[in-house]
Amino acid sequence: MRIFVPFTAAAMLVACSRQDNTNEGSEEVPAPAAATAEATPDAAMSFDCAAARGQAEQAVCADASLAALDRLAAPGDAALAGQRNACGRADDLKGCLTEVYATQIATRAKGGKKLAGVTGPLAYDCAGVKVEATYVAEPSLAIVSGSGITAVLTRAVAASGERYEGVSEGAPIELWTKGKEAKLSHGSERRQCSASEPSIDAKAAS
């Protein structure tokens, strides 16, 4: 089961900029998208807002963050359009739309698709638990999956590094990263993690 938590403002990216972690001799992995965000080009929306129909399409056109996710997801994908429009019946319309789009973006990134402002998926070994995280710069999200965990996390304030939080299977989940260091908390479990190279699918397709 996937549970979405409403995300923070994109301006949090500035307030939470990464602090210096360039120790001599340390090995780094690609930084999450929040640290390497590029301006997202004016890619086409998956539908024409001038002819938006239904609650889902109207909500996307009225919300800049949802519109940005729509551009990163696969325009013209009929299956995605069906999932998007089905969110019109959801209690949490924005949460449903964000989950649909974020999941599709993570799938595209894992398949090797280069997307502006998207980093990953990056693989993490958390004391034997294998997870992957795909980072979206705007809106500031991390899509985490693996070992029974599937969650869309939002960027939160961190004293150093980058922290993302949300809920999965009814329990709080948090991912903190800084260079190759990472920590994953899910419910009462706390695991020290190490980041490795991008996942095999993305690496092979690049």
User: Which CATH-level-2 architecture?
Assistant: Beta Barrel
Largest sheet: 8 strands, antiparallel, barrel
Helix content percent band? 25-40%
The fourth-level CATH homologous superfamily is C-type lysozyme inhibitor
- In the predicted model, the low-confidence regions spanning at least 5 consecutive residues are 1-28, 33-42, 200-206
Tally of individual helices: 7
What order do the helices and strands follow?
EHHHHHHEEEEEEEEH
The count of DSSP E runs of length 2 or more, i.e. the number of strands, is 9
* Portion in strands: 25-35%
Classified by CATH, the class is Mainly Beta
The CATH topology corresponds to Lipocalin
Number of domains: 1
Class based on secondary structure composition and strand pairing: alpha+beta
How far apart are the first and last residues' alpha carbons, in Å? 30 Å
Provide the spatial order of strands within the biggest beta sheet: 2-3-4-5-6-7-8-9
Task: Using the alpha-carbon principal axes, give the shape.
Answer: elongated
Summarize the structure in words.
The chain has 206 residues and is α+β, with helices and mostly antiparallel strands. It has one domain: Lipocalin. The chain is 29% helix and 31% strand. It has seven helices and nine strands. The protein has an eight-stranded antiparallel β-barrel. Strand 5 (149-156) and strand 6 (162-168) form a beta hairpin. Helix 3 crosses helix 4 (64-72) and helix 4 (64-72) runs parallel beside helix 6 (93-110). The longest helix has 18 residues, at 93-110. It is elongated. The two termini are 30 Å apart. Mean pLDDT is 80; it is low at 1-28, 33-42 and 200-206.
